[in-house]
Each structure stands twice: as structure tokens, then as C-alpha cells.
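dude i think i finally got it to work??
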Amino acid sequence: MAAAIRSLPLEPFLPLSGMGRAPDVARLREDVGIARMAGNNVHTNGHAAAASSSAAARSGLSKVIVVGAGPSGLLLSILLAKNGIKVELLEATDKLDDQPRAAHYASPAVYELRRAGVIDDVIEKGFKPSTFCWRKADGSIIAKMRFDVLPEDHPERMVVLPLDRLGKLLYSHLQRYPLATVKWGHRVVDIGQDNTKAWVHVQTASGPVKIEGDYVVGADGANSQIRKCLFGPNSFQGETLNAAIVATNVYHDFTKYGYWDTNYIVHPKNWHMVARIGRDDHLYRVTYSEVPGLTTEEYKKRQPMRYKEILPGNLEPGDYKITNISPYKMQQRCAPSFRKGRFLLVADAAHVCNPFGGLGLTGGIADVGSLFDCLLGIHKGLADDSILDKYAEIRRKIYFEIINPMSRENFRRLWDQDPDKAGETDPYFQICHKAEKDPALAKELALFYRKPGPKASL
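look at this
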């Protein structure tokens, strides 16, 4: 039947950005019970690819409503419209979000961007990083890994493009599909459903509107109105971490200090990240630790002092140009379920984590690809509605078994160890050292997956 089934694993492979797909997809298909479709075939656990009689009798989905025109909502809409499913994308604001936010797309995300037909444009506007390291405050390297152990044209090599630029690119692609409609200034205020359809009550500039579809997908971010309507205003279970960070986008040439594409500085107080996010223009993301509890204006006033404290070169404000500064709290939270009837959640509407390692972004895009496969299976009559329960079950399990623990460990690694001893005591750094002499392992690290091993991967 299906010749090339792909699935995300349940095992945590790496503590960095990874939810890479395991090589034994047949075993995963059996264990997980949810599989990627190849061509016109899909398998679900314990069921043949043929749909139930009721599903087979259907002529396909009439329309899917996606709420939220962020990258996850745009990407899902492209995948649906590209594959013959009518989609209506509703956005509460009147424009795309211009906040740069995350930028690194690991191999599972690259796979989904390729399926959507956008990866070539992403690569053209972004770049493929080559190097990654952890450093002490004096700049000396503790551990390192390389992405250029993979060929430049490797189909799943990491790509970097700030999220605001990706949003514009995705919107441009979405406009090419006649089955897709985007409605700006459509703010969801209430929801409803019955056995045959779901609907949203929307407030617009011209008054209230009711919009119906077969399914409604909440892709409306961490403050998701869909999630709140489904489970209540205080249902985003988890915690706010007792730490504050400030993310800045800055033009400055860090290569003159010997810095690599991505640099994590390990320090009990001044932990931070310096990562190149611009293709040719020395645009970097500098994200650094701060004192919790201050106002946004107070954080902005402290920025020059913090740069001078943590960055090389004893920098003065005239030495760099900041284009964006965003203080924020870090949260680890997950919705009670990713499905309730004909309503589904993806990406930040379903789960959030701290930004270190890119697990929130990669995990959110993986949600999108998994949900798309399920909806397409239903649309083609190859799976019944119960496959959406598997989507909700498996993706939520992946949050608790991979995204949440790994992202916490990524964060802890920056501040909760002695930088002078970390190279010898940190299990993951030991894996990096081994990879320097093991080309096969180095390639596994560059793709963000490896066979399950010791607890070093947690």
C-alpha cells in the first residue's frame, strides 16, 4: 500500500531542536497508530486503509475553517487548499504579525514546508546554517556541532528565516489557491457544533457573522480564543517559569569575535544566545537573561547595560543597530486536549514552551502536518473521524514526552551547571564530542534525530 509513510517518533531523540523521524517507520506506524499518507493511501492502527462505509460514502469535506493567520494557520491552509480542500482562514487583526520571533526550522519542519511547496522560497530568502556551539563567557567553546556535515542540497537540512518573513511568504503562496479565502478583522467570540458541522460566531467591522464548516482548527496562538471557548479561560495547564528573557534583533558583525552561526553562552547569571538570522546582512538574534518582574520600558532602558555586560567587544549603542526588542516570560503549558468534537488545536494554541532549542516552532509545524494528513484522509474517504482522536492523543503525548522535557533541559543547560566542568559532565556535550570523530553520528545530530539511547538525550 503506502510506500513512503512518515511519522514523528514518540521517543525523545535529542535535547536541541529535534523531533526527527525515526528510521523504523513501520514499527512507529504499528505503535503510534497514526501514519503519514503517501499518494492515496493511509493506515490507522487496527484499521485497513479503506474507510468505513459512512466515510466512503461522503463526497469529501466541504470546508475547513482555520482561525489564526500566523505561520501555523497559513501553512495548514496551504496544505489543505493545495490538496483540494476548501479552507476559510479567519484572522482577528487586519494584517500579518510583524514580530520576528523564532527563526530556525529543524528537519521535521523543513519536511512540512517542502510538502507545502514553499521550501525553495524559504531557502532563497533565508539560509542554511553551518555551525552551532556552546561557549563560556570568555568565548571559549565548550561543545559544538556542525550542520555542514550534510550536503548543501540535503532535503532536510535546517533552514533559518525569521518568522515574520515566513508569514509573508506563506501568505503570498496561499493567495495562489482559489480554494483558500482569508478574512481579516474577523474576531471569534463564540463557537458551536452539532453532529454534522461546526461554526464560529465572529465579530467584524460590519457586525456579527456566523461561519460554518466541517471542522474548525484553532491556530490562534498562546492566547487562543478557540481553546478558551472549548475548555475555559484558565485551562492552559502548566506553569510560567521563574525567569525573564529579552529577545532582540540586532545588526552587528559577530564574526569578528570568532562567533559561529549559533552560539549559546553558559553562565549562571549572564546566560544568553547569539544566533545569525539574516542571510547576508549581519542580522542576529540576541536573547539574554534578565531580572524578572520589570516593566517593558525598564527592560528597554537596561538593554545597553546588558549588552555591555554579556557580549564581546565592550559594545556601545553606536556599535550596533537594534530593530526589535521584546521582553517576555517563558511558559510551559498544554491544552487539556487537542480535540473536542469538530474543533481541533495546533501549535501555540495547543502547547507552548520556552524558546531554547526551537521545539515550540518545530513542534507546532509538526502538528500542522499531522493534522493535515488526518483531514486529507477523511476528505478522501480513507479514514474515519476517529483518526482525529489519534492526532490529539499522539501530538499531546509528544508534547509531554519530547517537547516539554527537552525544552526544559535546553534551558537548564544554559545556567544550572559549571561552565568550566560542563564539557566533561554534561551528557549531551559528551555526545557532541564523540560526534567530532564519528561522521555518522555527526550527521544524525545535524538532522536532529538518532536512535534512542541513554538518558543523555533528555
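Residues 25-126+161-236+335-415 form a domain with the FAD/NAD(P)-binding domain fold (CATH 3.50.50.60).
im so relieved honestly
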